[in-house]
Amino acid sequence: MAARHGLGRAWAGCSLQGRRLAHAGAGAQLQREYDAVVIGGGHNGLVAAAYLQKSGVRTAVLERRHLLGGAAVTEEIVPGFKFSRASYLLSLLRPQISTELELQRHGLRVYTRDPYSFTPVLEDGHARRSLLLGHDMAETQRQIAQFSSKDAQAYPKYEAFLSRLVSALDPLLDAAPVDAAAWSQGSLLQRLRALRGLQPLLRAGLALGKQLPQYYQVLTAPITRILDLWFESEPLKATLATDAVIGAMASPHTPGSGYVLLHHVMGELEGRKGAWGYVAGGMGGVSQAIASAAAAHGADIFTKKPVARVLLGPHGEAQGVVLQDGTEVKSKLVLSNASAQLTFLQLVPPEQLPESFLQRVAQLDTRSPVTKINVAVDRLPSFLAAPNAGDGRPLPHHQCSIHLNCEDTDLLHRAFQEACSGETSTRPMIELCIPSALDPTLAPPGCHVVSLFTQYTPYALAGGRPWDEQEQNAYADRVFDWVEAYAPGFKASVVGRDILTPPALEKIFGLPGGNIFHGAMSLDQLYFARPVPSYAGYRSPIPGLYLCGSGAHPGGGVMGAPGRNAASVALQDFKHM
């Protein structure tokens, strides 16, 4: 199920979403005291605020930028073209959040994609064959049979195998991880609570039954080893492997890459498991709907309110925040939607935190391979493997995640190796999406917006070279050359582009190292250990300070689970204050 999420020659455009979102708390004045303050108006922070306010906890959201949403935003970088500037696809948002916050009533609309994956294949310099995957299993099998009849027969069994694992793990996303510290060192009451926390984990193991060892291998092995057990066709394996490395500084040969694949097939849209879609109006529509729900319950939401530090009481407990202009906002609870690194290394005095905790936070793996390029074009890309119709209307494959340079997994591995040595990939992995194929409101008539999610690009270039405009444009030009090889005429159709390298993603969106997950989704940084061991339950060493962003369990993606879970934990504590 290959699909996802997510400055060189950038145009200084206005923010369409900013005009609609910044007034989510319209008319509200920032009070000097609340029950809870949320640092950062990303989607997880907004989810946390909505649940807290819905439970009667007076809550304020303080966002640094001029618009809400974090990485889930819509921005008009090129006049007339509305980009999902960072994250670009929806699936992982927990269905109970949509239901409990009534997000459809607050304007959320999603275009579900079917088919969802298109891989044109370059052979001897020509792209004549392609692989199209969708929800029609019979048609998908016919597509796979072009490359291997054996793989076509195996594919439904592979899907069923993954679905069983996803169903078993799904409940773990909606609760705090087992508190290992309380289990080993806590009071009797804390140990009993930890025991209750074990129940979802035990149920997951029981659901997998005798196949547990096979599923354990999926979580720990390189994804290539798993795919080699099922398939022989390289285009199919490479297409599926993209879900295992997307956004990760990892190769298909990296142990544990199988979990990242699972993370990207865990979602659902409109009751269809594993489906992905485009949000109407761009990804900012998700943030707008959540902010609207939070504001409807009474939350105060503000933009252009950067937080300088967490305000601490005489016993080291969180008592609110101090803004960069010196304004103090008191509160009993502080939830941070920022990364663990920003929260604990910049917003809290180091002497207030255990040295071992600070060391672990500082050593978190936040490497990112991603450069996101948003492109405005004056015509629909036409692929050699599936040329456009005469009328210029989008064809089924145009709505897909279009995988370029994915002819085999070794190509992906070589691209990864180049980035490990500080160089950008000479043949980068490219996931190309055209959301305007389903949502024509995103671009002027006849024009389109194109998202290029590319890797591998290192955060730091070899030899200390800066990611200056020359380096950014050189890489973007190389990406465009590869798109041109599959879709001649693409370069001539470009109206404008916005290049977001790892340092740019960090600077604009606060993503540490440019990492879209706030930290690697590797096994050593998941569940018990996210963000660090003994603090995986959203609480921190500072009483009253909680982590509610993607750096907390269960991780990144536009999921909302960290925000919902953190709000639940904070609410439990609030009731005992």
Spell out the blueprint of helices and strands:
Layout lengths: L15 H6 L14 E4 L3 H12 L4 E4 L11 E5 L2 E4 L10 H6 L9 E3 L4 E7 L2 E8 L3 H9 L3 H21 L10 H6 L2 H21 L3 H9 L2 H8 L3 H12 L11 H7 L4 E2 L2 E2 L3 E3 L4 H13 L3 E3 L4 E6 L5 E6 L4 E3 L2 E4 L3 H7 L8 H8 L7 E8 L23 E4 L4 H12 L8 E5 L14 E8 L13 H18 L7 E7 L1 H8 L35 E3 L13 H15 L2
Parallel strand pairs: 1-2, 1-15, 2-11, 6-17, 15-21
Antiparallel strand pairs: 3-4, 5-10, 6-7, 8-9, 12-13, 13-14, 16-19, 16-20, 17-18, 18-19
Task: Give the tags.
577 residues, Polyamine Oxidase, Chain A, domain 2, 3 domains, seven-stranded mixed beta sheet, 18 helices, 21 strands, 17% strand, disordered N terminus, Pyridine nucleotide-disulfide oxidoreductase domain-containing protein 2, FAD/NAD-bd_sf
